[in-house]
Specification:
The protein contains 5 helices and 6 strands. By secondary structure, the chain is α/β, with parallel strands linked by helices.
Length: about 160
């Protein structure tokens, strides 16, 4: 059993975000969230002898939470904001675990893709990758038609699927 005398302060609530166990309804993506039974969250948190919850709080072993719940969610950052406003507005401290389940509101817009296209690996990493591809895969940018322009600004979307 976990000792409860190591922390006198606690996080008010932990919300463990998860996908819906049943996936999308009828193959249709829908913005929604519901408090649900934990799919995996219960593996990462356990209740201490004083009723508080312990888990992995960025290596801080003495941190506890007063409440713990799992929420299935499909949506973006606005959906998460709605969840917090509706169900957790009274919490003084709230720990959102697995926030990578949330898409940001502007995912896929022109600014997102501009930022995405501008990303480049460091030159020394490209050289290591090129050497591996050449030696192990008999592959290179020219034969694979993956040559990048010197400047990302010059890169244009080209459809090559047919």
């Amino acid at each position: 059993m976990i000792r409860s005398d190591t922390n006198h302060d606690a996080i008010d609530e932990v919300v463990y975000l998860q996908a819906y166990a049943e996936g999308w309804s009828d193959g249709k993506y829908e913005i929604k969230f519901d408090k649900r039974e934990c799919i995996n969250g219960g593996r990462f948190y356990e209740r201490a002898d004083d009723g508080k919850w312990s888990g992995w709080f960025f290596t801080y072993t003495n941190v506890r939470a007063r409440q713990f719940s799992c929420v299935s969610i499909q949506g973006d950052s606005n959906t998460l904001a709605d969840l917090v406003e509706r169900d957790h507005s009274e919490a003084m401290s709230l720990f959102i675990d697995r926030a990578e389940a949330i898409l940001h509101s502007s995912f896929g817009d022109s600014y997102y893709w501009e930022a995405r296209r501008s990303m480049r690996y460091a030159k020394h990493l490209v050289e290591i990758g090129d050497k591996f591809r050449s030696e192990k895969l008999n592959s290179n940018d020219v034969s694979d038609k993956t040559v990048l322009d010197k400047s990302w600004v010059e890169t244009k979307k080209v459809r090559r699927s047919f």
